[in-house]
Amino acid sequence: MAGREITCKYANSRALVYEYVRASMQTYTNAMTIASLVAFAFAGVAITGRASGIMIGILLLLGSLLLLDGRWWAIQRAAKKTIREYVRRYGTENVTVEIRISDVIVYRIKDSSVSYNYADITKISTTKNFVLFMFRNGVVPFLRSSLSESQLQDLKLMVNKKIRQNRK
Q: Domain-by-domain residue ranges, the chain?
């Protein structure tokens, strides 16, 4: 696989942006879910401890808001911000994305591109349509449908091998 290159090119859409934003924010979503459960637990303790109705209401409201933010509001805001940034930079939300995976991962939208090293990958996640390479300062959404199953397996093997080589 030395010198091998896998390329993916696709037209981004609003639905695809929402999908990869939702997947890339999974850690935040989980944290907000836990925080809301803690608030609900405190509300339960307050109910059994005969606390005031205002305190119970505040805890229930706080838990509900944390849950809504983690599960919906934050994802909506981040996706809309991403789409607005596409429109500002490239003039359209349906930008052409090209990703080239070889010695480095190159993520290109129109005329701008950024390169990532395999050692900088913090997490690899999959969704219905994407293999997401997550970095501290960005996400590279590689469209799965551009590959056959065997090519997808080759991609996973190649990336895992490159990660091991770069972390030594």
A: 6-167
pLDDT (tens digit, 9 = 90+) per residue, 3-17? Answer: 578 888 999 899 999
pLDDT above 80 for 167: no
The predicted model scores a pTM of 0.76
On whether the CB atoms of residues 18 and 79 are closer than 8 A, the answer is yes
Place of tokens 């359209």: 92
Q: What is the rounded CA–CA span in Å between residue 153 and residue 157?
A: 6
d(CA 18, CA 8): 19
The more confidently predicted of residues 154 and 130 is 130
Tokens of 134: 């997550």
Q: How far apart are the first and last CA of the chain?
A: 18
Pairing of strands 138-143, 130-135: antiparallel
Residue 62 tokens, joined: 């706080």
Structure token pair of residue 26: 């999974």
Q: Are 24 and 70 in contact (CB under 8 A)?
A: no
3-state secondary structure of 102: coil
Residue range 39-50: mean pLDDT, rounded: 82
Q: What is the mean pLDDT of the chain?
A: 86
Check whether 1 has a pLDDT greater than 70.
no
